[in-house]
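User:
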Amino acid sequence: MLAVPEMGLQGLYIGSSPERSPIPSPPGSPRTQESCGIAPLTPSQSPKPEARAPQQASFSVVVAIDFGTTSSGYAFSFASDPEAIHMMRKWEGGDPGVAHQKTPTCLLLTPEGAFHSFGYTARDYYHDLDPEEARDWLYFEKFKMKIHSATDLTLKTQLEAVNGKKMPALQVFAHALRFFKEHALQELREQCPSLPEKDTVRWVLTVPAIWKQPAKQFMREAAYLAGLVSRDTAEQLLIALEPEAASVYCRKLRLHQLLDLSCRAPGSGRLGERRSIDSSFRQAREQLRRSRHSRTFMVESGVGELWAELQAGDRYVVADCGGGTVDLTVHQLEQPHGTLKELYKASGGPYGAVGVDLAFEQLLGRIFGVDFIATFKRQRPAAWVDLTIAFEARKRTAGPHRAGALNISLPFSFIDFYRKQRGHNVETALRRSSVNFVKWSSQGMLRMTCEAMNELFQPTVRGIIQHIEALLARPEVQGVKLLFLVGGFAESAVLQHAVQAALGPRGLRVVVPHDVGLTILKGAVLFGQAPGVVRVRRSPLTYGVGVLNRFVDGRHPPDKLLVRDGRRWCTDVFERFVAAEQSVALGEEVRRSYCPARPGQRRVLINLYCCAAEDARFITDPGVRKCGALNLELEPADGGPDAAGAPPGRREIRAAMQFGDTEIKVTAVDVSTNRSVRASIDFLSN
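Assistant: Predicted structure:
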């Protein structure tokens, strides 16, 4: 049948061609036995979705930026040697005993809002400011999660600095990305002076897989503002999903680069103390070496030894446990080329390491008063940052088998401010508190038992395990052999022990890469070199448009009836482009044709709708919401008939949408001239 987008009755040309042949409805759309007989803006699905190989931009080097909640960094590799990954230089400053291949996601702006510094430099400078002066500076930390949690994210969304002042979020992110861009390009110029500067870099930005389309578009807009690429060279920027990047990297690893938590030595609590997975697979590896097929697969696909052990069709889970979120993805290994197929849509939630920080803040509120902590954060923001840094250092040492208490330094300004506000000292507050597992040490520090520290982890750790268990219960995920634990939070011995204790008895092997905190960054570089490695993804939502279909008595609700020019229409019909959890191949296209209403029309704007359900019938159904708009910008028509003999001014614009990439993409062409039409999907203007 012929379906008409709803905006057709509000200004788009409606023709009258009763002899027009029917156009089939897409699967899942309401059907009738005859054509409606109208021809405006007519969506028509291809008989079968067509797959087209993605066009690859030319580049000499891939630079990936892992923009994390708590820490960030970049790495790069040259197209001439794609697997030789160069990590960024060591950062100045930092914490004792911590490898500085990343820097804290901290941004410092002057009181006037100009960029001052990022990372350790920003944190240390802010620390050294006079308390009164610091109140005027704009210091941002852990701000990435604000983009995920914002339900009405737009280009005008504001972020709040620790002193309470606000700044457009887009500018904050652009400042940070510009910092990495300048650092990376400077390092590239020093390493390769002959490298041309124009269009030579393919940039990759990492985002959580559970981020929705508005958040992904927001990162792209920030990259435009930062000057990484322009809108005219948008293809030089890729958005990489963090657990996917980790999966791409893990498939390259050798056995000695992985740790199997089931092989942990009794009583050990730290990552470096566990035996390598290599020992438990020595016999299997020897068998693989004798297998000609396995050797051939390893060479042809470039996968590591562990992956050669897996057979075609084997499944595994990647749990990316970062600072802000836990991000789960399920992949199936495909032979002979080692490509990856997503088996279930990305899932997860806000169960990152910052949850432990929040639990510590709540503990301080129980001891010193929630109102005091809020006042201290507002009036002594730099000192609050010092306190969180002190806690972070002790948090990293927590382990399930650790013996002895932990001391956490309180800044002098905290002690002094509390005495002035409350009239007694912090030691008195601890004695009066109902919290009996935190004491005041003779060294002037908070002294916390190991059990108390581990308890701060439990709400976040339980959330992670519950999400993994819920995922493993899905029928699409049956037969999983491995769980890769990656991300910065995966370095925690508390988390590792809890995940192994919960999932190990189920026969699931929990595996951790040696460089677990850099897995996503390195994988993003490899993804940038070969973005086609993830061949099939699952759509997280159902997407479509609202259309008018011919009204059918008994099938359509009476309240949807619209009579116009003697014709009976059913309004608000949800015409589906792709269904939630539907497998979509990379490059696969969903095509629709649209006709402008007026001969001189320069723009066509079509609302997009989405929902979690697969079977929504109308755009007014519960859970269906407007999520964006398809925008087609038209060049002036020539005015003559097109190649098919259509009357002047009657143009067909054919749009092709791709749902199998990390972002939803659209291209369009003017059928009469075969010229490209500027097409975009805007998810940020609702």
